[in-house]
Specification:
Layout: E1 16-21, E2 33-39, H1 45-53, E3 71-77, E4 80-84, H2 95-111, E5 115-123, H3 130-141, E6 146-151, H4 158-172, E7 179-183, H5 192-202
Parallel strand pairs: 2-4, 2-5, 5-6, 6-7
Antiparallel strand pairs: 1-3, 3-4
The structure holds guanosine-5'-diphosphate and magnesium ion.
Function: Necessary for normal cell division and for the maintenance of normal septation.
Protein name: Probable GTP-binding protein EngB
Family: Belongs to the TRAFAC class TrmE-Era-EngA-EngB-Septin-like GTPase superfamily. EngB GTPase family.
Length: 206
């Protein structure tokens, strides 16, 4: 076992597509460590995953959001996985499908033993939508660590981005689960190292 302070950064470039699941029973065996990526459609989730792993197409980015309805698993090693949860909140997705999605998400989130934390992506210009609050409250209620990426930070001037970050930091102060927030831009590659450090802590044994 490695000492916590000797932990090395995980090489996220090793991430490879493993499998897709439409429900909990199709997920890979519940062993090792997993981190799940959640966000409303178009929040920049695929772009963040691609930036993290240094891949241009690991998780498909799309200008027509809401297409992916599956839970996608990427393995870094046989004990470490990244999980791309289906997008949510796309207006053209029928209500029934949203309910189905929510059901499978809740199943996954509440029953997955290897889940070490959730990365929640929010467009810095449109944070704290209904879906975001749902994930934040869920994580809080079961003390699941949560890390928020304020994505597309390049869309704001630095001062405005910093202000958005501070505002969210003061809001999450009232949550009692481990929760953190950072600026992120897939376009400018900002915040990538901070994310790698966070995930390396989650995905390795104490
Ligand atoms: N300016 C800017 N645009 C971004 C960034 N990340 C994603 N986008 C754009 O936002 C849209 C949605 O991104 P995508 O990663 O597919 O979002 P997803 O639906 O959450 O997976 C695409 O048009 C991306 O090019 C970023 O850091 N900066
Ligand atoms: Mg996507």
């Amino acid at each position: 076992m490695t000492e916590p302070n000797q932990r090395t950064l995980i090489n996220f470039q090793k991430a490879q597509f493993l499998t897709s699941a439409s429900n909990l029973s199709q997920c890979p065996e519940d062993i090792g460590y997993e981190v799940a990526f959640a966000g409303r459609s178009n929040a920049g989730k695929s772009s963040a995953l691609n930036t993290l792993t240094g891949s241009k197409k690991l998780a498909r980015t799309s200008k027509t959001p809401g297409r992916t309805q599956l839970i996608n698993f990427f393995s870094i090693s046989d004990q470490q996985r990244l999980v791309d949860l289906p997008g949510y909140g796309y207006a053209k997705v029928p209500e029934e499908m949203k309910k189905q999605w929510q059901y499978h998400l809740e199943q996954y989130l509440s029953q997955r033993q290897c889940l070490m934390g959730i990365v929640l992506m929010m467009d810095i210009r449109h944070p704290l939508k209904e879906f975001d609050l749902m994930v934040m409250q869920w994580a809080n209620s079961c003390e699941m660590p949560l890390h928020i990426l304020l994505t597309k930070a390049d869309k704001l001037k630095y001062g405005a981005a910093k202000q958005a970050l501070n505002k969210l930091q003061s809001i999450i102060g009232s949550y009692h689960n481990p929760i953190s927030v950072q600026l992120f831009s897939a376009l400018k590659k900002t915040g990538v190292d901070e994310l790698r450090v966070k995930l390396s802590g989650w995905l390795q044994e104490d």
